[in-house]
Amino acid sequence: MGAENTTISIQELFMLMFLFEIGSTTLFALGIDAKQDAWLVILVALIIGLAFIWVYTELQRKFPEQNYIEIIISILGRGFGIPLALLYAVYWLWPAARNLREFGELITIVALPEESLAAILFLFILLSLYVLLSGIEVLGRTSLITLPIVLIFMLSIFILIYLSGVADFNNIRPIMANGIKPVLKTAYPNVAIFPFGEILICSMFWCYTEEEKLIRKTAMLVIILSGLLLSFTLFFDVSVLGDYYTSVTRIPLLRIIRVVDVGILTNIDIIGIVIIFLGGFYKMSIFLYGVARVVATVFNVKNYSRLLTITGFFLLWVAIVFEPSYVFHRWMTPFDTNYFYITFLHIIPLLLLFINWIKERINILSEG
Amino acid sequence: MSKKMKRPLTIEEKKRKDEEEVLERLEEKYLNDIDINNLKVYSSLEKNLVYLEALFSKASDFNTRKFKLGDEEVKATLVYVQGIVNKGFINDTILRELMIVSRNQDLKLSRSYSNLIDLIEDRLLTMGTIERRDEFTTIIDDMLCGHAVLLIDGYDEAISIPIPTREVRNVAEPETESVVRGPREGFVESIDINLSLVRGRIKTPDLKFESFRLGRVSKTDITVAYIEGIAPQDLIDEVLNRVKRIDIDIVNESGIIEQLIEDDPFSPFPQISNTERPDGVASSLNEGRVSIFVDGTPFVLVMPSVFVHFLQANEDYYQRFFFSSFVRMLRFVAFLVALLGPSVYIAITTFHQEMIPTKLLLSIVASRAGVPFPALVEALIMEIAFEFLREAGIRLPKTVGQAVSIVGALVVGEAAVQAGLVSQAMVIVVALTGIASFMIPAYSFALGVRLIRFGVMFLAASWGMFGITFAVLALLIHLCSLRTFGVPYLSPITPVDWEALKDSFIKVPEWFKNSRPSYLVKDDNQRIASNVKPSPAKGDDEDE
């Protein structure tokens, strides 16, 4: 259970991060503010995401044996580091709770309208605790099976939609009708942060892999592949639904699944539900793991399993109490991204790298 | 006081009490020279016999045969337990040699032998193995395992001659794992025969059999078999450690050992497989696995066994690869059907009716129209009835068993549908599920699947597909965290091992399976020489 003897293979790391990236992103019409150019927005954001991957992995390279929180404390010292680490815990708790709540609500909306939300959230947390108590490497190993399933499902959705003949690629045109400005504006900070910036939480377990040199390559590959997949999804969303419907519909992916009509394959919603479930499960579990690990690192907690359990149920409580509805989420998103997320995901890591660089300079100067 | 008296004696205490009793009786006869702590063989034959007879009192199969040895008429006695020793050997070989041949031999001339026991060992007993014993504990153990023990007056040593015998079944085709193509021999209850069957298939001195006895009362012979150099040393040590740690009164079947050495006793999935087939054991040993033979049962344990092993049958390797791969994938589908069949039906009919194509939906609705129960209850009734039939069929004599299945399947099934208790669709689903669970070659694995099915059914009835996904993910997590003797249970799927995946859901042609599975074997991986891929003959007889 302890983190000391955990090892994650680079394959597992890849799968985990990929699932994390797919996570909830398949649900939303990301970058739809740029209308039919949403798919382009993703590609632009992808490049920004890659740049920040360089920042995150550079930090990891400087301190290969430490997780992100330990790196913060190493750079800033305990006095500044610990408060910041706790802020991170609070910040990460927020997307974790949102994620949990979102998926619970989506499940109730699309599949089980008469079931109690709390019960579903409880099952979700239970499952997540089960896997995290078995260790993050177990989560990694399960992802080796679930990622291919998710990918196969997504690809088959695209193929089936194409075969159904409902995709109208004219919906994509004209490309960049209003120039490049709206594309850039949506790409940063919104899409560059969600989903690409959020991968920072994975640096809580990057230190467990034995092939440190491959972390950067793997993370970049994940960003590129998931970005392409996402861009492809939006391309299909918009070409099937048009930009207006894509922006107003609740879950574009499910909406386009509903139009599939090939032979006896007519109502394959269930595939969508499985994708939502798996993506949400992995994303939420990784966030929960991150939060628990931050607390464990800061307070040097011995009984990690108890801490994890408490954090899990606290998360459940937060998700039920502090999140009034799914609509609230969607309304809240730009606010979150523009103020909170950008600080924690882009500004602080950059500052950390800068401070560390200065410290290194000073050391060199004082030695030389 | 009374509390203390009522406590049953522990085995140690009882043993000591018995010993004291015997020594008391000895004391009555030989008041003078008794040493309480001395459990060594006395040089007085009479004393030894008194001791043994006292120990084996009321054991009617204990036998003593008194006779005179050689010309000098030395008193000697052969003691043994009737029934477990070979009577023919005793009558025709041992006693003949000791009573008749020993006279012809000029014992007086053999001056080089001051010790009669040496003489007997070197010149008289024409047996493959004999052992010299001087402690009563070993003598008694020997006798109980089918040795005849020769005691000679004047010597404080005994000769123990192993001539065990028992009634054994003929080697026959195993009933639990029959094949269309493949060897027709199966293990029997005798461990010696079982070991010889495996030795006959692996003719290398690297094949090791480490034997010991287990069980305070049963003293069962256990043999741990492995191929040195192929099986990893830490695996062998771990198996031996776990087996030797066992302290139990009786070991009747290998299943008892299995339950005492498995990694996770609370997992519904078995982590050690069992087989009745020598070819199965041989190929497992060659894959670097370890097997445990237990005397008295034809079921041999093989470990570590991972998920894919339970969906494989020996015959897969004997048939050509197209069909084997097809069957293996079919089995995997069967595993999913057996696990999820009724649950998916419940989930779809209760929550996700829109998923069913309209025409099919209409016919399902029509068949369910008169059924008073919700789908879960309907499914539970049928599933439990099916489990009844299955268990009833196993325990009953074969002839009656068939009658039960006819009554159950045809009469009850048909009548239940006609009476409107269950729908036809449900009968089909349950029957399919049942057949699918028979597709799983490993019975112990199928048992786990049968049990989990019920849990998934409840989840499906409560939360539909969400419940099923929950159950599947939970199972997946469990399988991923499960290890058997250090090997992850889902190897080679995750952690992925491409080479070994060639022999998992599919079976590649023999010439393409280059190495032994690397999640089991660390060194010596080479399985087949390169370039053995068959191809039509080139050159000579071609008309080029």
Describe the structure.
Chain A: This is Spore germination protein KB. Chain A: One of its GO terms (cellular component) is membrane. Chain A: The chain crosses the membrane at residues 12-32, 38-56, 68-94, 106-133, 145-167, 187-208, 220-242, 262-282, 303-327, 339-358. The complex is a heterodimer of chains A (368) and B (544). Chain A is 75% helix and 0% strand. Chain A has helices spanning 10-22, 38-62, 68-110, 117-133, 136-164, 181-196, 214-248, 252-258, 269-299, 304-321, 326-367. The radius of gyration of chain A is 21 Å and the shape is globular. Chain B has 3 domains: 16-162, no CATH class; 191-305, no CATH class; 317-488, no CATH class. Chain B is 47% helix and 11% strand. In chain B, the strands form 3 sheets. Chain B has a 5-stranded antiparallel β-sheet, with helices on both faces. In chain B, a hairpin with a 2-residue loop joins strand 11 and strand 12 (487-488). Mean pLDDT of chain B is 85; it is low at 1-5 and 31-37. The interface between A and B is medium-sized, with 32 and 25 residues.
In terms of topology, how is this protein built?
The complex is a heterodimer of chains A (368) and B (544).
Chain A: H1 10-22, H2 38-62, H3 68-110, H4 117-133, H5 136-164, H6 181-196, H7 214-248, H8 252-258, H9 269-299, H10 304-321, H11 326-367
Helix pairs in contact in A: 1-5, 1-7, 1-9, 2-6, 2-7, 2-11, 3-4, 3-9, 3-10, 3-11, 4-9, 4-10, 5-9, 6-11, 7-8, 8-9, 9-10
Chain B: H1 2-6, H2 11-29, H3 45-55, E1 62-69, E2 74-81, H4 87-104, H5 116-124, E3 131-133, H6 136-144, E4 147-152, E5 158-162, H7 191-199, E6 207-214, E7 220-227, H8 233-244, H9 254-261, E8 273-275, H10 278-286, E9 290-294, E10 300-303, H11 315-318, H12 321-350, H13 358-368, H14 375-395, H15 398-418, H16 424-439, H17 443-481, E11 483-484, E12 487-488, H18 498-501
Antiparallel strand pairs in B: 1-2, 2-4, 3-5, 4-5, 6-7, 7-9, 8-10, 9-10, 11-12
Helix pairs in contact in B: 2-3, 12-16, 12-17, 14-15, 14-16, 14-17
